[in-house]
Design goal:
By secondary structure, the protein is α/β, with parallel strands linked by helices. The protein has a single domain, classed as Vaccinia Virus protein VP39 (Rossmann fold, 3-Layer(aba) Sandwich), CATH 3.40.50.150. The protein is 31% helix and 26% strand. The protein contains ten helices and ten strands. The strands form two sheets. A seven-stranded mixed beta sheet has the order 3-2-1-7-8-10-9. Strand 9 and strand 10 form a beta hairpin. The radius of gyration is 20 Å and the shape is globular.
Amino acid sequence: MKELIQQTLNRLGLELRRLRSHHHDDLADAATLLADAPIKTILDVGAFDGSSAARYRTHFPQAHVYAIEPTPREYQKLVERHRGDALVTAVNAAVGESAGSAELHVNPDHQTNSLLATDPRVAKLLGSGDETLQKVTVPVATLDGFCAERGIDRVDLLKMDIQGYELRALRGARGLLDRRAVRIVYSEVLFGRLYEGQAFYHDIAAHLGSFGYQLYGLYHLIRGHNGVLGWGDAMFLSPEIYDRIA
């Protein structure tokens, strides 16, 4: 059938080609999308042990990375990993809708630590539970306040991996989003139930859409033990970038 279609197209002066698959390399895509201007500022929210900040420093060597991580143990790893690098600023805090403090749920797998409690139904998705080991009180900042305090007027890339709390963090970035001062939002998004009170993909997409941000692509989609789509990452573009490429 493919050969028949190709022969028909050839007679019309056309050629059938397989297009390169997009949305498998978020860093390469971000670099291409941001190539029209210098990349100066990256907010790495949920920086964990500093591995993501290291990737950003490699791919965007001129950018200043603000690596924000609330878990005390992982924050210390982050600090040690980037000690002496003037272009990585480590911040021991969570990010949310309002500034203050909150209890962080510390789980056996620290990558799942969250300001939200684990949903009891997560075992159906993961095949096992992830019960909280302890709770620690951590400071909470808003992205609007964080940027205002540091004189950051534009964010080239806002990355968030904060375990279901992404929507609340975006609500604390209303000023930035309203000014469209964030060029790309790259966020973990949840499809399955992992945390109590979590935001789902459609919640984040709707919120960003209200400011004119559009989905560019989905990355690293993970299915659960039960076959249900669990989580992944989504890249949203500011109207400026989306209109340029659309």
